[in-house]
Amino acid sequence: MKNKFKKLTALFIAASAALTGCGLKSGSPTSDSGGEAVTVTFSFYEPSVNKEFETTFSKLAEEYKETHPNVTIKLMSQPNNGYQEWIQSQFVSDNAPDIEYNMPAIFNEQVKGGLLVDIGEYLDQPNPYSDTDRPWRDDFIDGKVEAAQMSRGDRYAIPISGLGIAYYYNMDLYDKLGLKVPKTWAEMIANFKKIQESGTDPVAFMGQKEDAVGWISWEIATGLFSEEMLSDPNLNFNGDNNLDNYEIYKAIDKGFYDITKEGKYRDDYKKYISYMKEYGKYCPNLTGLDEAGAKTLFLSGMAGHIMSGSWDLQSFMTDDTIPFKVGVFPFPKFTKEDSDTPGDGMAIVDVSALAITTHANKNPQVLEAAVDFLRFITSTDKYPEFIEGTYAIPVMKDVDVDESFIAFQGGSRTPVGIYTIGSTKAEYANNNANISALSGENVDFDYMATNTYKALKLMVEGSKEKDPDFAGSKDYNIGTLPMILGEFKPYTAEE
C-alpha cells in the first residue's frame, strides 16, 4: 500500500476534473446561470502542516462553482492553535463565518447560545446530489449526526470526519508466511503465533502509553461483554448503547457490580484477564516500549503489527522509507467460541463537524447556498474526494474509498471502559492490573480483583466528596446523560 494513496488521490482528482461539466445527477439542483452574487464564508482550522484541508476544500469549492457560478465559497483557513479564541471573537464582532468547522463540544455550547441554525428540515430530506433516496441524515453512519452536536440533539450540525483505532500490519510478512487478514480473535492469535515462530515479534505494543493499554482493554471488554452489560438494567440505567462512568458508579455503589464476589461479573473479569494475558504473550518487551519505541520497532520491520490510531494513517502509508508495504485491518470480532454473548466491534464516537451559524441567516440566499454546499461535499461523488484528500476517516455509509479508511470506522459499540477506570488515590488501579496481565506477571487474581475494585469504589467516594447530592437527589447524574447511539438494540453476531 506504500504510495497507494498518492496515486489514488491523483487519479480521483483527475477523474473529478474530467467529469466536471458532465451534468449533475437527476434530481440535483439545476445549475445557477445567473442571479445575485452570493459569498459564503467557511472557517476551519488546518490540522496538518501540509494543508490538506485547505487544498481539498479549495478543490471542492471550485467544483461547486462550476455549476453554481453566482456562488463563491470563501475559505477562512486558520491555524489550529488559537482557533477557538478566534471563532469566539468573530461571533462577538458579529462577523462569524457562515459555515463553521469545529468540535461537537464547542457546537454544544453554541447551540445553547443560539449561535447555530437549525438544519433539521434539510437533514430530513434526501441529499439532491446523491442517489440514495433516503433522508440526508441517514447517509451518515448511525449515531454520527447525534455525535456531531453531543447532547443538544441532531439538528444543528453534521459530522464530516471521524477517527478510530485499528491494526497496521506488515503486508510483506503476511505474504511471506502465507497469512490472511484475520476476521476473528482466534484467527489473529493464530497469525501472531506463526509470526512469533518465524522469529519476528508479532506486536509492537506501547506499554508505557496508558492510552494504548486502554485501547486493548476496550477492544477485549467491548467484544466479549458489551451485550451482557448493556442489556443489564442494573448497569445500563438509561438504556442506550453506551456504558457511562456515572452508570458504573451507581452500579458499584448499589452493589450491582462487584468483581470480588462470586457471580457473572467476577467470572467476566477472570475471562478478561485471561484474554489480556494471551494477547500479552505476543508483545515482547511491552513494558519497556513507549510510543516512539513501538513505532520504530514496527516501521523497521521487526514487528508484524502495531495497534494505533487513524492519525498515523497518512505517515504510515506515504513514507517511502518504510521497507515494506503497510496494510490496515479493523479489530477482529469475537465469536461464540469466546463468549456466550459476543458483541460488535468498538467504534470511537468522536467526530469533527460542520455547522451553519446564524450569520448566514442574515441573507436567505446565503443560508440556502451554505446548506447546499454542505450537501454537495457530503454527496456520494464528492465525499470520497474529501476523504482521499485529507486522510480523514469516513462518517458516511457506502463510501467508495480505499479499504484502509474503512478499517478505522470500527463497529457499532462504544468502548466498554469499565476495566480502565481508576483512581489516583489507589495504590493499585485498573491500569496496574492491565499492565500486570499483559506482561504475564504472576499476580494473584484475588489480590488483583480486590484492589482494582477498591480503586473503583474510591472513584465513587471521590464524586460523593465533591458533591454530597451526587448519590442522592442527583441519582449519580444519570438523568443528565445523552442517549449515545440511540436506544440499546442487541447485536446479532455472525456465526
Structure description:
- This protein is an alpha/beta fold.
- It has two domains: 4-162 and 350-402, 3-Layer(aba) Sandwich (D-Maltodextrin-Binding Protein, domain 2), CATH 3.40.190.10; 179-348 and 410-495, D-Maltodextrin-Binding Protein, domain 2.
- It is built from 18 helices and nine strands.
- It has helices at 4-19, 52-67, 83-92, 104-112, 120-123, 144-147, 171-177, 185-197, 210-230, 245-253, 264-280, 291-299, 313-318, 364-377, 383-390, 403-406, 430-439, 445-466, and strands spanning 38-46, 71-79, 99-102, 158-162, 165-170, 201-203, 303-309, 326-329, 351-356.
- The strands form two sheets. A five-stranded mixed sheet has the order 2-1-3-9-4.
- Helix 2 links the parallel strand 1 (38-46) and strand 2.
- Helix 2 (52-67) packs antiparallel against helix 15 (383-390), helix 10 crosses helix 18 (445-466) and helix 11 (264-280) crosses helix 17.
- The radius of gyration is 24 Å and the shape is globular.
- It starts with a helix and ends in a 29-residue tail after the last helix.
Offer a quick outline of the entry.
With 495 residues, this protein is α/β, with parallel strands linked by helices. The chain contains 18 helices and nine strands.
Write the layout of secondary structure elements.
Layout: H1 4-19, E1 38-46, H2 52-67, E2 71-79, H3 83-92, E3 99-102, H4 104-112, H5 120-123, H6 144-147, E4 158-162, E5 165-170, H7 171-177, H8 185-197, E6 201-203, H9 210-230, H10 245-253, H11 264-280, H12 291-299, E7 303-309, H13 313-318, E8 326-329, E9 351-356, H14 364-377, H15 383-390, H16 403-406, H17 430-439, H18 445-466
Parallel strand pairs: 1-2, 1-3, 6-7
Antiparallel strand pairs: 3-9, 4-9, 5-7, 5-8
